[in-house]
Amino acid sequence: MNARLPDGERERLARAALSRVFEPGDERGGRWIREAGPVELIRRLTGPDGPARALEGMTATRLAGYRLRAVSADPGRDLASVAAVGGRFVCPGDREWPSQLDDLGDARPIGLWVRGRSDLRLWALRSVALVGARACTPYGAHMAGTLAAGLAERGWVVVSGAAFGVDGAAHRGALAAGGATMAVLACGVDVAYPRGHAELIGRIAEQGVVMGELPPSDHPTRTRFILRNRVIAALTRGTVVVEAEYRSGSLVTARNAQRLGRFTMGVPGPATSGLSAGVHELLRGEGVLVTDAAEIAELIGEIGELAPARSGRVLPRDVLDADSARVLDALPWAGVTGSRDVARSAGVSTDEALGRLYELHSLGFVEREGDGWRLTPGRTRDGDVRRGGT
């Protein structure tokens, strides 16, 4: 490492190199960075064995593996490669670094490779994760897109993993609403994975932010997908799972969110659907059931961001007081009855019953026929017009 470079630039180069040495979430490597510093650590990993072997937990086998990667790392080339696609490398301590990632402790990213013109830290301050099954149902895709659009319209940044299924639907929903979205990749930010989402990832990079822990051109693996989920959980205020089986990576994101003290939410689905089984298990625990963007915003937003009050359909009968409702109930479903019979059934005086019947007549619930009374034809006691003869 060139000693004539400013300290900040030397650390950036060292962290860029270490992002090729350690796998995402390597807590041992994170502890060494914290204790020795990135510049000293890369010096030890590329120098004589003695200083590197002195690191706590280092073994000959581990050192051989780390050294093989360290000596081939070219941070200058990687920084040039990300700059060529309009990107940058954001490190802890930078103004743009999202400090909530520090909650991951030694498992926090060494740095983040980022594409997109927006400020990562500012966008992350008001962000929510929408994750779910890759092989989602049409219901799952619809819910993900609708929730994302609703959140985007409320000024929330939608974060997901750019995968097929729920992830893609969430990104598209936010973009369609003219909102903000961020994609966290399990590969280099210059790699379009999955390939079928190359256009979508390009749109996100143009209109939002694409980020990842892995340096340019690095490929995804099953383990890297799982480890990527901790970043999604830590970056956002809460995680919403739309569809997930029992052994879904989306549930890993939710569990990470719970451990970090973030909000965890789930969208219910059919009880018979295996793709909703994991979500329902989450809801049986500490997850919160949500069905629309307003409910999500109420949970994770500021004071006053309340979802509208939920209530059933207001019926004409709801305007009646208890005595009038009891008189209305005293009338038979069919036929005519006298006011004395109504009074006896309702438990009121004849004069009281007569007064209530005239009130119900003015509201359209009953009709007078001779000296008797009956329910208005076509109406139920609730005041609704009967349909289909029922």
Automatic annotation (TrEMBL):
Belongs to the DprA/Smf family. It comes from the Bacteria. Coiled coil: none annotated. Signal peptide: none annotated. It comes from [Kitasatospora] papulosa. Residues 89-299 form the Smf/DprA SLOG domain. This is DNA-processing protein DprA.
